[in-house]
């Protein structure tokens, strides 16, 4: 596998990045435990002009400040006080774009993923949904701000690239508070993956 370079993340079009993250491999190596999964579902968040973004309107808090930082950095936040959600910071510094990884297909370290998630056997829920992604890979908010080219956590290309016909584009999930922006086609999925959460196909 080859780690994605800084230039992959340092681009202006967050939708292109979210689409191109499909099929890439998210890897963690924490405390000697290696786990990895292929990314099969992403959502793009377009910063200050996107009502669904944590940075909408130029909002800057201790939590969101990482979004204004270096592209290729992890932004991990706690949802409902339970779920650690993993995002990739993109674009240039001071432009708070990000991509949420919503689902993975487990590839490596499945026994450790089962231990982390409390499951007895692997099924399609293991990497389905952003909370399960982080739980399976051992990602918590302590890793927010982490460089995604590090040894401990990175995203890599292993030669797999989905064809256009294998990808569907839909509105994002769970952002009804964003008004009209909730309808934007900012979610990207691999159509045939059983790990994808929610409705699989709205438009392609």
UniProtKB/TrEMBL annotation:
Pfam families membership: Pur_DNA_glyco
EC class (word): hydrolase
Keyword presence, Hydrolase: yes
GO MF term set: alkylbase DNA N-glycosylase activity; DNA binding
Keywords: DNA damage, DNA repair, Hydrolase
EC numbers, comma separated: 3.2.2.-
Record has DNA repair as a keyword: yes
InterPro entries tied to this protein: Formyl_transferase-like_C_sf, MPG, MPG_sf
Transmembrane segments: none
GO biological process: base-excision repair
Family: Belongs to the DNA glycosylase MPG family.
Name listed for the protein in its UniProt record: Putative 3-methyladenine DNA glycosylase
Lineage of producing organism: Bacteria, Pseudomonadati, Bacteroidota, Chitinophagia, Chitinophagales
């Amino acid at each position: 596998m080859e780690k994605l370079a800084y230039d992959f993340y340092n681009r202006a079009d967050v939708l292109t990045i979210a689409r191109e993250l499909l099929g890439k491999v998210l890897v963690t190596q924490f405390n000697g435990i290696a786990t990895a999964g292929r990314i099969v579902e992403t959502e793009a968040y377009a910063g200050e002009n996107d009502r669904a973004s944590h940075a909408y309107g130029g909002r800057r808090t201790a939590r969101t400040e990482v979004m204004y930082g270096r592209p290729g950095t992890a932004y991990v936040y706690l949802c409902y006080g339970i779920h650690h959600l993993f995002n990739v910071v993109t674009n240039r510094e001071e432009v708070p774009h990000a991509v949420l990884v919503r689902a993975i297909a487990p590839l490596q370290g499945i026994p450790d993923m089962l231990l982390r998630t409390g499951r007895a056997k692997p099924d399609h829920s293991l990497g389905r949904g952003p909370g399960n992604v982080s739980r399976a890979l051992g990602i918590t908010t302590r890793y927010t701000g982490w460089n995604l080219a590090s040894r401990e956590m990175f995203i890599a290309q292993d030669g797999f690239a989905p064809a256009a016909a294998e990808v569907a584009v839909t509105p994002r999930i769970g952002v009804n508070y964003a008004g009209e922006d909730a309808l934007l086609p900012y979610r990207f999925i691999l159509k045939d993956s059983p790990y994808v959460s929610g409705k699989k196909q709205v438009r392609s």
